[in-house]
Amino acid sequence: MRARNPLYVMAKPPPAVAAAIAALPRNDPGRAPDLLHVTLLSLFDLHRAPPDWLAKVIAALDSFDGAAFPLAFDRIENRKAVTLRTRDPLAQARAFQAALVRHLLEARAPMMLGTTPEPHLTINYHGDRLRAEKTAPIGWTVTEILLVESLVGKAAHIEHGRWPLRPAD
To answer: What is the pLDDT of residue 1?
Structure first.
């Protein structure tokens, strides 16, 4: 059964980077640039979750001490959707995801899914059947994370909080 209101921890590009991504020819012009994001962690479907789960996740994120990290993508790939990706292992992003999961587990926050997808940014959910191609690198330093509920089928997000990250060491 597909989630109706999945809850995610996301990184969103700053406005200038979002505008550059939105200008890519393979980007879906029907989606607003403020919906562009990188999912760092999939948590659970708020539609089916007990009422206290959201508050527990927010409380856990309030005590999270994560460092800022870079994200950069240099490829456009069509899988089930058109995405920005890289062959770089994005070691700092993956380490951040692991630290976030460890923290949420230690804080006993609910994470029914608890998946950490390979960092990518979807630019067209419909796919375009074109081949993978290199593109000029597009990236930013992630300085905050967001807790976002996605309204499936409505092209909308509900933000449940933002947490700044400390400067990288």
So the answer is: 66
Kindly report the pTM of this predicted structure. 0.94
Q: Which positions ≥6 away from 32 have C-beta within 8 Å?
A: 155
Inform me whether the pLDDT recorded for 150 exceeds 70: yes
Nearby residues of 133 by Cβ (< 8 Å), 6 or more positions away: 75, 76
Strand partners, 141: 70
Check residue 169 and give its pLDDT.
Answer: 76
Long-range pairs of 29-33 with CB within 8 A, sequence gap ≥ 24: 30/155, 31/124, 31/125, 31/155, 32/155
**Helical pair 91-106 and 53-62, crossing angle rounded to 10 deg:** 120
Closest CA to 121 of 153, 90, 152: 90
Residues facing residue 91 across a β-bridge: none
Please provide the distance, in angstroms rounded to a whole number, between the alpha carbons at the two ends of the chain: 42
